[in-house]
């Protein structure tokens, strides 16, 4: 299945782009996604422990299964205000 | 966006934050108090790591940020049912020292019904779960500022 991945703030700098289409196996989990991301974008490797993932605009955790066509966002801990 | 007795406004904007407009928007005929919290760009930091800031550059994951602002407003209403109006605004883009960057405002009939605590809760939660980031530019260079809060299933 194909998903859209958006990168924000320092994770965008690390990945080197704002947006990517990623091919994932059916019923891939957020953990699978993270492994695929660091393989494809090695710049993310050293920030792995602080990567936050949102799936369809909600925080998502390692065991969540990603639905087909999901909008995924990858970003560091937030710093608004 | 909200029912008439509980006006709720939230937005990510590149425009200046207009306090007078917001006070009108969150006031009811029965309102007698509003607590506004606003944060601005600090040009000179003396606490912790002392430094000078030239400007901050903010960005947001806008659709999720507005959804999370809505969630913060809902959480405020659960905890302080006496709160009448709520406004949550985050400005993004390049913001210079002295510029208001964020605003949380809560109105109620009286000041002793939790509006101070509600606004405090609102800014604290915004800094935990609303996907907005800032990059600090100083005379020495620039760096992303990263928060420390790791969201959990309740967020």
What does this structure look like?
The complex is a heterodimer of chains A (81) and B (155). Chain A is of the alpha+beta class and 81 residues long. Chain A has a single domain (2-75), classed as Roll (Ubiquitin-like (UB roll)). Chain A has helices spanning 9-15, 30-40, and strands spanning 2-7, 19-23, 52-55, 58-60, 71-75. The longest helix of chain A has 11 residues, at 30-40. Chain A starts with a strand and ends in a 6-residue tail after the last strand. Chain B is of the alpha+beta class and 155 residues long. In chain B, the strands form three sheets. In chain B, strands 1-6-8-2 form a four-stranded mixed beta sheet, sandwiched between helices. Chain B has a four-stranded antiparallel beta sheet with strand order 7-5-9-10, with no helix packed on it. The radius of gyration of chain B is 16 Å and the shape is globular. At the A-B interface, helix 1 of A face strand 5, helix 2, helix 3 and strand 9 of B.
Strand content of chain B: 25-35%
Distance between the termini of chain B: 22 Å
H-E order of chain A: EHEHEEE
> How would you sum up the global shape of chain B?
globular
Q: How many separate domains of chain A? A: 1
Q: What's the Cα radius of gyration of chain A?
A: 12 Å
- Order of strands, main sheet of chain A, comes to 2-1-5-3-4
- Residue share in helix of chain B: 25-40%
Main beta-sheet strand count, sense and barrel state of chain A: 5 strands, mixed
